[in-house]
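dude i think i finally got it to work??
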Amino acid sequence: MPKEPKIKKIKDTDYLAISTRIRGMENTLMSRDKMEQLLETQSDEEVSRILQEYGYPAFSLADPEELDEAFSNVRRNIWKDLEQSLPDPRYLDVFRMKYDYHNVKAVLKAEAMHTSPDSMLSDLGRFPAETIKRYVTSRGAEGQVSPILAEATREARQVLESTRDPQLCDMVLDRARFREELQVAEGTGSRFLQGYVRDCIDAANLQTLVRCLRVRKSKEFLAQALIEGGDISTDVLLHVEGRDGRALATIYQTPGFKAAAEASSVKGFEKSCDDAVTSYLANSQLIPFGEAPVINYIAALETEFTNLRIILLGRKAGLTPMEIRDHLRNSYV
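look at this
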């Protein structure tokens, strides 16, 4: 029986070349000062000029679908470029997974409503959107997806068919998505990536907990909604008493999450949760090479897309710069 080939262990020094490239690519990320310029200008032409200066294609600022398509194209091109240079492409897979799970949600809900999911599907995942669609609609007879995604699809379908509750369906898929993200992160051996995913889980759980406390959901519902794998045990979260930030702040002790917990009863709470994750990334700014600069760049790019969407949709809705500014996420650049 032939021996299985040994998997080469990736060292930090294998990232020397791409780390140098990433540092250069970081210079193309939009600074907060440039975001402020977008906020303050009255001219749509000036907004379009600034966006194109930073590599975004021309699109109608009044059309949210064109906006999303433009951002998707930029994201797709950058990911394709990175994928060809990464010693381990699984680092990128962690950021792609949410689109696979989004596509499953879209197809399942479209089936239940007897409509087409095509306008809601994204080709940014690990699997082509058409593959996901075939897999879901054929009940696993066609198409190939990851084992965790396959299991979650079956469970989510059963939940949706038995309860007709899309929220419960989403919870099944969200739990599976984070479980797979953590599994892949652990498979890479990167402690930094594992820490990032665990922080994302903690942020998601904090938001879920606060929402459930606000509307007095049962502990049984909360137990279904919470996600395993974060630094804060779900058992601890299930026994939180009180509906203000004081009880939560005794559990979430790191500075970023403590601030988010204390802000749980005020406007901007979800922004505080996102900023807590960003603070984890900012702590690694002094790491010269390895996978950390790559992961930081991908996450910072996602924050840029989020902030630009907030700015552009806020302008379209007639919000003031101050109103929009309150929603902008922090970035480490």
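The mean pLDDT is 90.
im so relieved honestly
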